[in-house]
Amino acid sequence: MSPFATLLARKDAPLLIGVVHLAPTPGSPGYDGNWPAALEAGRADARAYLEGGADALIVENFGDVPFARASVEPECIAAMALALEAVRAEVGELPLGVNVLRNDARAAVGLCATTTASFLRVNVHCGAMVTDQGVIEGEARSTLTARSRLCPEATLLADVHVKHASPLGNESLVQAARDTRLRGLADGLILSGTETGTAGDPLHFERVREGLPDTPLFLGSGLDADNAGRFLPWIRGAIVASSLKEGGHRDARVSAEKVRRLRGVFDS
């Protein structure tokens, strides 16, 4: 099994997955021309997550707003490959993942195949969502076909009714979750609030868990040390960034002390 699949198979405490929010990559509207400084910032956050006790990290091009609707430019993929390897140098054997925003699952598969990343997050894997980038349609078959050819051991975590978006259809959250798992063949599911930094309703997690009792379920936004107890009974783990940064500011550096505090809640 891959490093992340091995981690996922453990039956101990919930998994804490820290997010390395990259600064704008070359070619994006906010890029400042200093990619080495962006890599160093990513390394610093990775060290803080490692020191605080995170189980895994996921690297994403968070700074590339406004995001491409589907395929990103080649320079973005190249920059993310460099970032993944820079983070790897800081965290040793810790499992790494990648999310290519807004929804370039094919690029994420390629990065898993060419770097040490062993899992990927896909924001829209099944169905269609209305987003600030327009309508984004899932490409589950294409993504899974590419994975089977390039990196069959990579774990695919898929969002259900992803944040910053609304479903184009009228399916319930539970039905969308069932389709994503049973028809889209995602290895794990992610539920979030409506936007970055919001956690959503614990009842939604309970309902999805009841409908899919054996599916790894993750919280994808808004978890912190104060609200974790409301979600931990229903989830296999959480993907966390904003609440672990200095002062809670999304553009600040990650605080190892905040990571350590949340790790303690997970382990209690």
Write a structural description.
The chain is built from 9 helices and 11 strands. It is of the alpha/beta class. It has a single domain (13-267), classed as TIM Barrel. The strands form 2 sheets. Strands 1-2-3-4-7-9-10-11 form an 8-stranded parallel barrel, surrounded by 7 helices. The protein has a 3-stranded antiparallel β-sheet with strand order 6-5-8, with no helix packed on it. Helix 2 links the parallel strand 1 and strand 2 (56-60). Helix 2 runs parallel beside helix 9 (256-267) and helix 6 crosses helix 7.
Helices and strands in order:
Layout: H1 3-9, E1 15-21, H2 35-52, E2 56-60, H3 74-91, E3 96-99, H4 105-114, E4 119-122, E5 128-131, E6 134-137, H5 140-150, E7 155-159, E8 165-167, H6 173-183, E9 188-191, H7 202-211, E10 217-219, H8 228-231, E11 237-240, H9 256-267
Parallel strand pairs: 1-2, 1-11, 2-3, 3-4, 4-7, 7-9, 9-10, 10-11
Antiparallel strand pairs: 5-6, 5-8
Count of separate structural domains: 1
Shape: globular
Give the quaternary arrangement of the chains: single chain
User: Rg to the nearest angstrom?
Assistant: 17 Å
Distance, first to last CA: 28 Å
The averaged pLDDT comes out at 95
Q: Let me know the largest β-sheet.
A: 8 strands, parallel, barrel
Tally of alpha and pi helices? 9
Structural class: alpha/beta
Number of strands: 11
- Specify the helix fraction band: 25-40%
How much β-strand is present in the residues? 15-25%
At the first level of CATH, the class is Alpha Beta
Give helix and strand order, one letter per element, not per position. Answer: HEHEHEHEEEHEEHEHEHEH
CATH architecture name: Alpha-Beta Barrel
Reported by name, the CATH topology is TIM Barrel
Looking at CATH, the homologous superfamily is: Aldolase class I
Low-confidence stretches at least 5 residues in length (pLDDT < 50)? none
